[in-house]
Write a structure and sequence with these properties.
globular, Rhopdopsin 7-helix transmembrane proteins, 223 residues
Amino acid sequence: MEKRQPIISFACGLPRPRWRGHVHTWAFLMALPAAVVLLFVSNSAVERLGVGVYGLSLAAVFGVSAAYHRLAESERAQIIMRRADHATVFVKIAGTYTPVCLIALPRNWGIPLLMAVWAIAAVGVAVKVFAPRRYLSWASALYLAMGWVALAGLPVIARNLSATAFTLLVVGGVVYSAGAILFWLRRPDPFPSIFGYHEVWHVLTVIAAAAHFGTIVLVTLAA
């Protein structure tokens, strides 16, 4: 069987590392049954709505990322899939907020917070999908801003989550933020042709997502 040639990234003109996209492929395959488990342990329509949105967003962010990094070969395909990849990050962040806001928080806090994060997500998706390329970089700052908008209601969130669920929520946010900084620095870059800084970033996103998944499980079971 002929060995598949590395995909050339048109963004930098270099072959992608051999492990590019593999981590998120595995994460996608794990996200699907994880979403089913959450639906199974849900007890009400509101809970199923919250965890359903979360499960779909989790599968979407890893599935689109895996498809972009492993399957998009032509320049046009990479441009389109790169925009989709970046747009689904906003969906995933808002999707993670959804069950926490709907299930764990009181309505006077949960609903306004949920509306705010989905409004930011809508703006972010629109910019990433439709805006000229020169405007795309500033939109990336919205990722961190959106992730940490929860600070506005931190005391309320802490009161309504168990200590373990709250700790996992914070750990996930810290790992995401640290990963974003390392990605921007392009460090560490251990094996550039096999497993580089981008793959390190992908591993950190999976670790952070796992921490947040733990939060959602605990929130759902406690409802």
